[in-house]
Design brief:
By secondary structure, chain A is of the alpha+beta class. Chain A has helices at 24-34, 64-76, 86-89, 107-118, 139-150, 178-182, and strands at 10-19, 41-48, 53-62, 80-85, 92-103, 122-127, 130-137, 154-159, 163-166. In chain A, a hairpin with a 4-residue loop joins β2 (41-48) and β3. The chains are: A alpha+beta, B alpha/beta. Bound molecules: thiamine diphosphate and magnesium ion (MG).
Chain lengths: 183, 605
């Protein structure tokens, strides 16, 4: 969430496969805070129930040497099974979901709906003086949407952070069947 | 994991009974027995009483009762470092665990394999601020290699095997297993031991074998060097004794100059002609100058620590660097290298020796002998010479004499932290790995005395000396009681300068000689202190006292506490002042005026 941008700093999106156990997120976050690395966004959820695995997506920023360090340090954590650098690997998709509430009246309501439409946002809730929109897309698209809504009323935002996956037929972090993992 | 049917709290059933159900506490002991643990360093309390009960009943593993949990970990570290085995610690919840934190951090920084079992309040009370509850896994997360809270009885045995495996494999380190009291009473099925063991090995698999191509690339770089240097560290010792053998072979094969870090002393015999001495802040002139001017550097099992590199931007500016390390994150962390090789030091060195052998003819003999000529010039500066005149014992002399008297014997040395530690590294020579135990990464005052106890336990019959400073010694001197209880014949050799000497030195060099709170006031009479613990106390006040005191110390079967009164204001040289590079060493007190510490250096530790 650090905002200062050094010239040699680059933004990398990492996928990390971890055991779904208490403390694993604390280990990852503790690593970033303890060693002074940046976290721009972090998401986590279970992806493989049978094998008890979760996937963490982290967007971080640092010099190329620091990015290498981040990956090597993550890899050292015992319940971390795999670290993939999607940015380094090349083509990948990053998506974020946001829920945006806008409270307003009159003309602004119509404008809000119109903009929501161009952003392909869904309207999940509405009252006579408010909407809740759901919008997915790149982080910059969501930021742009939020900015527009802010000019149209009181706004509250909840964002999930970035979730990411590589393009193409490469399966980096396969979900295995129980049998495969037993051996 | 199968659930056990018949809970059985009585742990005394026989081994060959069909019912393999035992209590959690009993299971802990059985697993440790199975792992060939010979000794536990610990301190009891409410949350580990069931384990202490099992310890009593089974009577299978020796327990050393320390006097403070910090000392339990340091003792386990000393044991581990001097034997190559895992040190095992057992402490209670809350204050027992928090007292262990310094030791755990020390073991993490120096990569020492420790299994620390902490008691915890019963699972249903966790989070309630129960009596002697502390968030042990939270507190120790950043100071362990890994840690576990066992919340379900069926996880106990797998966790213990995995913890032991994680502590001892790859880059070793401390691992905590936090064990709630109800789990210690819970029924455990010991029929699941074998799968638990194999699962541990599958779950954590560090890279041991280095990439063969990278090794041959390293061999090419090495043989093409005109001004090579080998820079070895504690990773060689951690890898096992064969790693030192392979390094010696490489040195003999190539004739390359070699320097070792504080952690690596002993890998090459101190009197080997290729050995340039320790490098770094208080390393030798020849080692640091060679590092600065080399054209190819081979780092094996060292981590470019800031005590070693000095100012990183001016570190060995014209060399190609090869770094072999078991921990990928150590490579390119502080210093960018040209070739990083991940793997075990011993395996890598063996492969490297084989590759270099094939290329032996390519070694640039002429360039190498030119290089050695240059190095001999630096050696001729004789940077470790000191001036022992008159009655007042110079601290360097006190350690140098001790070494001369110990030479030829297989002696184990631990230290505290400060000037005496650096003098010990400079003036005591080691001929084998695992003989030198010092707190390198964390620099923990109070390490040496408990560590010496652990070394002595692991090496009965050997001479074990704690080269101490008076201030550091007092940080864990309660352990005299442990030493007395077990009649550990540890020799405590206090270099008593009545100052926190290293602090005083920095205050003199950097803070205008304002000696703020660094005087060791109200010191005890160390001889009487020894006496009241029933051990021999000796004092050396003048130069002539020294030899007889050392002789008596070494000739005594039991523990001895020696108070060596040394020159009070001696400083430790040579020195790379903070913020300076290897070629800007201060050689002695007269050097300092000419080269003041830079402003940038002031902020460094
Ligand atoms: C636990 C701890 N506290 C503080 C320090 C900072 N420190 C480093 S050396 C030193 C003085 C050590 O004095 P002494 O043991 O007498 O050794 P000397 O330098 O005099 O040989 C201090 C306070 C430390 N290293 N460890
Ligand atoms: Mg002192």
């Amino acid at each position: 969430m650090s905002q200062h941008l050094n010239s040699d700093e680059v933004r990398h999106t990492l996928s990390i496969l971890v055991d779904n156990e208490p403390g694993v997120l604390a280990r990852v976050i503790g690593l970033f805070s303890g060693r002074g690395y940046n976290i721009e966004s972090l998401t986590v959820a279970g992806v493989d129930e049978a094998n008890n695995l979760s996937r963490i997506s982290i967007v971080t920023r640092g010099s190329p040497m620091v990015i290498e360090q981040v990956k090597a340090q993550l890899d050292r954590i015992v319940p971390v099974h795999m670290v993939r650098d999607l940015t380094q690997q090349g083509l990948h998709i990053e998506r974020e979901l946001a829920l945006i509430k806008v409270v307003n009246k009159g003309e602004s309501r119509i404008e809000a709906l119109r903009i929501a439409d161009t952003f392909r946002a869904n309207t999940l809730d509405s009252t006579l003086e408010s909407f809740v929109f759901e919008v997915t897309g790149s982080s910059s698209k969501i930021s742009a949407f939020v900015e527009l809504m802010r000019s149209l009323g009181h706004v509250e935002v909840s964002r999930t952070g970035v979730s990411a996956i590589s393009r193409g037929l490469n399966v980096d972090m396969p979900i295995r069947t129980q049998n495969e993992t037993q051996e | 994991m199968t659930k056990t049917s018949q809970p059985k709290s009585n742990a005394s059933e026989t081994e060959n009974s069909n019912d393999l159900t035992v209590t959690g506490a009993d299971a802990v002991l059985r697993v440790l027995e199975d792992l060939n643990v010979e000794v536990i360093f610990g301190y009891p309390g409410g949350a580990v009483l069931p384990i202490y009960d099992a310890l009593f009943k089974r009577n299978s593993i020796r327990h050393i009762l320390v006097r403070h949990e910090q000392a339990a970990v340091h003792a386990a570290e000393g044991y581990a470092r001097s034997t190559g085995k895992v040190g095992v610690v057992l402490v209670t919840s809350g204050p027992g665990a928090t007292n262990a934190v310094t030791g755990l951090t020390d073991a993490l920084m120096d990569s020492i394999p420790i299994l620390c079992i902490t008691g915890q309040v019963p699972t249903h009370l966790i989070g309630n601020d129960a009596f002697q509850e502390a968030d042990t896994v939270g507190i120790t997360r950043p100071c362990t290699k890994h840690n576990y809270l066992v919340k379900h009885a069926e996880n106990l045995v797998p966790v213990l095997y995995e913890a032991f495996h994680v502590a001892s494999s790859g880059r070793p380190g401390p691992v905590v297993v936090d064990l709630p009291k109800d789990i210690q009473f819970a029924p455990i099925d010991m029929g699941q031991v074998e799968p638990a063991k194999s699962k541990a090995v599958v779950r954590y698999r560090p890279v041991m074998i280095p990439d063969a191509d990278a090794i041959s690339q390293a061999a090419d770089m090495i043989v093409s060097a005109s001004r090579p240097i080998i820079y070895g560290g504690g990773g060689i010792i951690n890898s096992g004794d064969e790693a030192s053998e392979h390094l010696r072979e490489l040195v003999a094969l190539t004739g390359f100059p070699t320097t070792l870090t504080l952690m690596g002393l002993g890998v090459l015999p101190s009197e080997d002609k290729h050995f340039l001495g320790m490098l770094g802040m208080h390393g030798t002139y020849e080692a640091n100058m060679s590092m600065y001017h080399c054209d190819v550097m081979l780092n094996v099992g060292a981590r470019f620590d800031d005590r070693v590199t000095g100012l990183t931007s001016g570190f060995s500016p014209n060399s190609q660097k090869i770094h072999i390390d078991i921990d990928k994150s150590s490579i390119n962390k502080n210093i960018r290298v040209d070739l990083g090789i991940v793997g075990d030091a011993g395996i890598a060195l063996k492969m490297l020796v084989d590759e270099v052998k094939k290329r032996k003819a390519a070694i640039k003999k002429d360039a190498l002998s030119e290089w050695w000529k240059k190095i001999e010039e630096w050696r001729a500066v004789r940077c470790l010479d000191y001036n022992q005149k008159g009655d007042i014992i110079k601290p360097q002399y006190a350690i140098h004499r001790l070494w001369q008297k110990c030479k030829g014997d297989d002696v184990y040395v631990t230290t505290e932290v400060g000037q005496h530690q650096m003098w010990a590294a400079q003036y005591f020579g080691f001929n084998a790995p695992k003989r030198w135990m010092t707190s390198g990464g964390l620099g923990t005052m109070g390490y040496g005395l408990p560590a010496a106890m652990g070394v002595q336990i692991g090496n009965p019959g050997k001479t074990v000396i704690d080269i101490a400073g008076e201030a550091s010694f007092m940080m864990n001197m309660q352990e005299l009681s442990t030493i007395a209880q077990y009649q550990l014949p540890v020799k405590i050799y206090i270099i008593n300068n009545e100052w926190m000497g290293m602090v005083r030195q920095w205050q003199e060099l950097i803070h205008g000689g304002r000696y703020s709170e660094s005087y060791s006031a109200s010191l005890p009479d160390f001889q009487k202190l020894a006496d009241c613990f029933g051990m021999k106390g000796l004092v050396a006040k003048v130069t002539d006292d020294l030899d007889p005191v050392i002789d008596e110390m070494l000739g005594t079967d039991g523990p001895v506490l020696v108070d060596v009164r040394v020159a009070k204001e001696e400083n430790c040289f040579p020195m790379i002042p903070s913020g300076a590079t290897h070629n800007q060493m201060l050689l002695g007190p007269n050097d300092k005026a000419a080269k003041p510490v830079s402003e940038e250096g002031m902020v460094l530790v």
